[in-house]
UniProtKB/TrEMBL annotation:
Listed Polar residues bias regions: 1-15
The species this protein was found in: Durusdinium trenchii
Stretches with biased composition (Basic and acidic residues): 16-27, 1244-1256
Protein name per UniProt: PARP-type domain-containing protein
Disordered: region residues: 1-38, 1083-1103, 1242-1263
Amino acid sequence: MASSSSADPESGNGNHDSDLPIDRETELENQNAKLKRKLRTTAARAAKAVKRAYSSFTQPEESDYTRVLQKQYFTQAWHPHRASSTDHETDKKQQYFRERARCVFSFLAVLKSAVLGLFSGSRKLHHILHVCTCDDTSTRMRTPGLGRSAVYTVCNTVENTLFKYVGGSWESIFIPTPTRVLQSGRANAIHRAFTLWSLVTADGCGAMWSKLGFDGWRRGDGAWRTAIMMGDALKANDAAWSIERAIRMGKGNSLGLRMRCCNHQLCLVRKPTVLSVDRFWSTVVRLGHLLETSSFRRGLATAIVSLLQKEGHFTRVPVAEYPADMVLWRERTKWLERDFITGPNSTREALKEMVHFANGDSSGTKVVHYCLLESHHGRPCCESDEEALGKMLSHAIQFYPRGFQTPLLYRMKHYGQASSYVKFGCAFFALLPQALQVMSSSEASIEATSLADALLAESDFQGVETNILQALQDAVDMDANLALQNKVRRQLVVEEISQPRFLQNCLIIDALIHPIEHGINSLLKHTQLLHQLRYLGRGHPESDQVKEQTSKLFLDVIQGSLCDRLVKNYLQFLKDGLKETIQMGLDPRPELLTKVFQLVTICVTDVYRRFKYEFLSSPFTWFSLLSLDTEGFVQSFSTLQTQHCRCNKCTDPDFGRILLEHFSSDIRSSTPREQYAIQSEVCGLLQDIAEWCPLTSDSVELRNGQAQWVISRRGGQSIKAPRAAAEDTILHSAIKQHSWSLESESNQSLPPKTVSSGILKMVGEKQSRQLTSRETAAERAGRIEAARTRKIRKVSAWNAFQRSQTAGLSLSKEEYQLKIKEISQMWTSMSREEKDAYRVEAEWQQQQIDCLAQQPLQTAKERADGDQSCGQDIGRERTDQCPYFLCQKDPAFDTINRMVRNFSVILQSKDVKPGDLLLLSSQHQPEQEAYILGVVMKKPMLQTLVSATVTDLEAQYTLTQKGLPIIHTSHQVFLRFVRAGGLGAVEVSVEVWRCQPFLDNDHLKVNPTEQVGQFQVGAEKPACVQKVATAKLPASLQVRRKPKPKNTDSKRKGRAVAKAAFVMDPCSSSGEDAVSTGALASECSSGSASDMDLDPNKESETMVPPSAIVAAEEKHMGKVAREIQDSDQLREQTAEEIRLTEKMSSMPPSQKGSSFFSRSIGLDESPFDFMMNGREDDGSPVGLKLIPGYRMVVLRLESSRYGSPQSRDRVYIVMVDETTLGQVRAYVSGLLDNLGQQKIKHAPSKDIQRRLDSRHSSYRGRG
């Protein structure tokens, strides 16, 4: 055998590699080295990664099928729009749908099992707290069976449940929920939507848990159940909660708490401030909407280039040292930079670089750069004027075209960024108004357009489309109707923003909203802490500390600490903030100072009403019991019992009344042990709520954005039906919890992302590092057995003593060694009796460790005992709660209500505005009381009054020892006058004085200079409210109109609602879709208020407009909203046409019904596919090819608009050189404007082509 295997040259069995020439071996080695270097390139690694990604989606083996489903649908590898990439493979799409449905069903079964596991076991439940944060939004969905999309109103919730056991232990679970389609705007539909997945409701649990066979309440009987609903202060949410309250009446241990979003409340405080300036809000919204289009951003960049290239608009001044005024200029620059609110860090970095380079006086209109001849590196800052201009253009293009997102007035999102952007653009050399004027007044030159495109490309701005999809999106932006709308909108913005008063208004409003932004940031911190508790639960290592922080922030808001901070910030603005704003450019005109004082008074009183006055009533006053000892608790609880016995309306029906009925016996007659037990139980419930109750609904706002991306991806490229949307959103909600927890822990335990990415890159490049020895089954079994049988040393008395001495210490290595020596000496000197205490503690610790090691994880047992029916008749009784300072049974209650109502009517008829001084007196109390009128509410009927001190020189707020103003409501003020009159007929005399503001050492003060009115307020109807008969024409002169048909539907009478918001699925009444929407299929047919459609955006409280400008702007808001809505609808219609065209072209021929001839020549393909990839019969290509260095531009001309006799629109596809892309866009835009203004009728197509050729003849030589 050995001889036969030897090398024989003739037999051919030997190895010939050694006989190769040396040059051949060298060549092979070079080829191998070259191949290795090629595999190390970025393209090769990317191709390898793509291959691995595609291999993960291949059909797995049957044994690994469940593992692959787990990875593809329950990890970050899941993508909701993966099925849209396989349009031609129907079988794969159907398989994806079946897999998704299977995963959703499996997830719901596991979720039910996990929840049942929290009910089972030896531990007894004491308190179950369910928090539901809900909100509605609009999203586009595909209508099943019709092949088109529509806008649906949907409801999203973020839900979490706390399980508190007897003894203090607790568990929490986050419940992923799907998006639910609202069947209507009725209160019943909204109530069913937000209770569908709730574990704790007035009926027991939500309808979906009943369908899943949930029977946990059979094991949780006797425990306290608390349901918290967090939502915006909207009438629809209040109506839905009233249904839940009616169901809860008569239930034993079921508590409820309705919380209003504090961020939404702060935005409502901001609303009258923003609307107090004529055309300010509409200008900001229109500008934000324009900045969403890429064409306007390119135009703005080109205008900035054209502006700064003009002679005199940018100046470079070479200096050896900076001028003396540079100190003042830098203060103004720091002020602009400090108050700027931005989202991404790149925007702030671009702003810092720009303000550092343009270091001249930013209050002027000419940009000046003082260039040092010798900088810190020994060279001049700029070598020439051209270099300085290039740097300034680069900084400006990196900042201004980024723009801002369109702000929302009733949400905290984007408004701070929008206000900061507009203020900075107008205050920093007035670059923004000047650039907008250049855009509207002149056409851009070729050089400016080319330079702007180059600068946009350098700033990572997506200015040039690289694929057909982006080209189609650009075609939507270049639509003729959209171009005309944007032109009109741009003219309105330029006309308003160019006025000098616009900058003055920007400075005032931006300064007044900063306290509100501070309050919003404080509330967002509370939301972040709740995220940690909600997603990590008891497993968080610092869960106890996080609960303490959430409880503290919650009590700060409930007990008025946040209100005090905001009010102090506004008072500080009157002293120092206004002085700084005046130094930075505010013109202190009398009318401007009057507006400032009026707005500060409105903000102060409205913050007090929303964040202190509302929390002085039950149930929020119950949280003051947490800070009392047993004696104080007994006294306060006894007071609450006395009030409840006297009038049950003095406590809220959802929370306080249920607690008082449960502990109905007099607490003062109980034993000290019973009193302590009651205190422990009540304070335990309150502490759980303080730790887990949210203060804002911004978590569900984020959920809305995520759900919209899952349902209809950006640009509407993949729109889902309601059933698919529900399945995808519940999977996304579960995955989001895992990804958030993973990211949160990674930030604390792993290196920074830059270091981690560097490590991963090294691992990817070094193939040898990825080769590790695999563990065999025998080795794994041996390792597990060794770990199981390993002897663990028990806890000794020395260990317990050492831990007690080092608890809470953070020591270095050297300090720890010294500490251990000191502890060992102490241990040696201790007696045996002293060591016995630590020996007992060590034994107890060892028992706990052994118990945890031997106790298995609890698993849920499937039990199907049926659904527990809790349905009862719903009571319709709804009573108003008494104010905290007056009971409804008080004899003066009706008198005061009539006086407040009359006072409100007189204020509106006499045109008394916030900021006016009111002097009140009566026959029983002749001494006048001075008040400054604050915010006036129409619903609820309420007026706020700030106590004032009047001297010969000024009128100022009366402050407490803490420096806070004394604020009352009109009910409280009139109550004192009625008490002084002995409950008889009382008339209060009111004098109205107009205040004149002035500056005293740059401090804003007011002086009452003119009495503008005087009237009497009593319980009788005032004479000024008597209606005057309107003048009518004689019957012979009146115009006869056709009578309107009578409205026979009594339910809808008096209700105006936009029913387009609730677009219904035509197939929703069928069985399949009815199941997909859960309990939202049925509608109540009763005639109560809950059956009427409610406006989802209508606020629950209405404010009287503080000025005529605010009233006009509120009406103008509707016009701007309709304007933007029409623009969005036009954009969506254009995009829908393109999407439908692409969809029909991508369908197989059998589905489209095309003929044999069209299929044979390729006309059944997409127009773009045919032009790009078309072929002849012999297979030779006839399609177009993109030339390197060129880009495709799609131009659509409406024939009827520009005079063409054809009924179809004309589409031009032009390949343009990259360097002239902006110039072509500018000239085409000007051509469309000229053609639209000339209004050519029935011009032949050759005439239009001749005009196009004549205007673009200069471009023929350049391609």
